[in-house]
Design brief:
Strand content: 25-35%
Number of helices: 9
Largest sheet: 11 strands, mixed
Order of helices and strands: EHEEHEHEHEHEHEEEEEEEEEEEHEEHEH
Number of strands: 21
Distance between the termini: 52 Å
Shape: globular
Strand order of the largest sheet: 5-4-6-7-8-9-10-16-15-12-11
């Protein structure tokens, strides 16, 4: 089952390469034409819609900045030796950076010849004897549910694209999976802060990689600077037209994430753009979900509009309806009105994107059809 990666799109020349999911092929061609017309003729552009579900945008890097990001990740992880296993698509920054790290360290990348499958991934790790890999939380959950044990040759697996709940992470560690939490975004070329492979599992106080400077404003919103950051951003308007923003090298990039910083350690708190008003009070669904997860792991808390309350909170589950309803009743007896769960909805499976990440836009759309009054 060994499969080493072929020559990748950004390796064929130094010209501009726009990487996007297959369903964005037409958008990708239009975006590339627009960028070329506006003087962006080199580099790599990653298409992304973030977690908002808005029209896609492209985050653009020079080849030099991506090499800086890859080199810093190798240094932070001490990953100078050993092959990589990559079950992530190369059009996503998480998958692309696996290949770039391997190229810098002279390693091979072993890939699955088909869609993600937990058993096949485990077999590929065994046969390739890869030392390094990257996964999204959904893939770790699959490994745990299948009770698959990790091959002893795997040294470290970066978990990015979202937080992994602690009970699942601890179970994965018990099965031998050397997972570490990583925090990053497309704008930072994947990794920004990552736990060390030799530490116990934790999802807070992640060490910031050596090529980044970080600061927060009075609201706790993260901004960063460094030679690895994006050089431009392409946005798509609702009418389909494009606009281009050039990011000067000395400009700090402000994110939408609220974090805390202690020296070079970062703790992610929540997205700044997820606050909603319920009964006239600002409510953070992510904070509610974090606390609620102590009672019911893997539950998603989402908000939908309500004509009287302004919005209402919905608890979404894939596993247990009756149990979650009882937990919600208990929760509501101790919580103030704006933080109470108004309804529980059970899904066969949550909507997810091509990376296996939760598709919040699709989830909200389905909830609007189910529960809005």
């Amino acid at each position: 089952m060994l499969s080493a990666s072929p020559i990748l799109p950004w390796e064929k020349s130094n010209k501009l390469c726009v990487l996007a999911a297959p369903h964005l092929a037409e958008w990708s061609e239009r975006a590339k034409s627009f960028l070329l017309e506006n003087g962006i003729s080199e580099g790599v552009a990653f298409a992304t819609s973030g977690s908002s579900g808005l029209p896609p945008k492209a985050i653009i890097f020079t080849h030099e900045s991506l090499n800086i990001c890859a080199a810093a990740a190798i240094q932070h992880m001490n990953a100078q030796k050993g092959d990589w296993c990559c079950p992530l698509p190369t059009w996503h920054v998480g998958g692309a950076m696996v290949h770039m790290r391997a190229a810098l360290s002279g390693a091979r990348v072993h890939t699955l010849p088909h869609r993600w499958n937990a058993k096949d991934y485990t077999d590929l790790l065994s046969t390739s004897q890869a030392a390094w890999s990257s996964l999204v939380p959904t893939q770790v959950i699959d490994l745990v549910k299948s009770e698959l044990k990790a091959p002893k040759t795997i040294h470290c697996i970066l978990v990015g694209g979202g937080a992994l709940d602690t009970p699942t992470a601890q179970k994965a560690r018990e099965l031998g999976w050397p997972i570490v939490q990583s925090y990053g975004m497309t704008e930072s070329g994947s990794q920004f802060a990552t736990a060390s492979p030799d530490e116990p599992w934790h999802s807070d106080k992640l060490a910031i990689l050596p090529h980044w400077e970080a600061k927060v404003n009075d609201s706790g919103i993260l901004a960063f600077q460094g030679k690895g950051k994006l050089s431009a951003r392409l946005t798509t308007q609702l009418d389909g037209r494009f606009s281009l923003e050039i990011i000067p090298q000395n400009q700090w990039w402000q994110t939408n994430d609220i974090v805390s910083l202690e020296g070079n350690k970062l703790t992610f708190i929540r997205r700044a753009d997820r606050l909603i008003k319920i009964l006239g009070e600002l409510v953070d669904p992510d904070a509610i979900q974090y606390e609620f997860a102590r009672l019911a792991p893997d539950v998603i808390i989402e908000a939908v509009p309500h004509h009287r309350r302004g919005a209402k909170l919905i608890a979404c589950t894939e596993r247990y309806l009756t149990e979650l309803e009882a937990i919600s009743d208990t929760w509501n007896t101790t919580m103030p009105g704006p933080q109470r769960i108004e309804r529980v909805v059970c899904y066969d499976s949550f909507p997810r994107n091509e990376m296996g990440k939760l598709d919040r836009a699709a989830l909200r759309a389905s909830l609007l059809e189910l529960v809005c009054e």
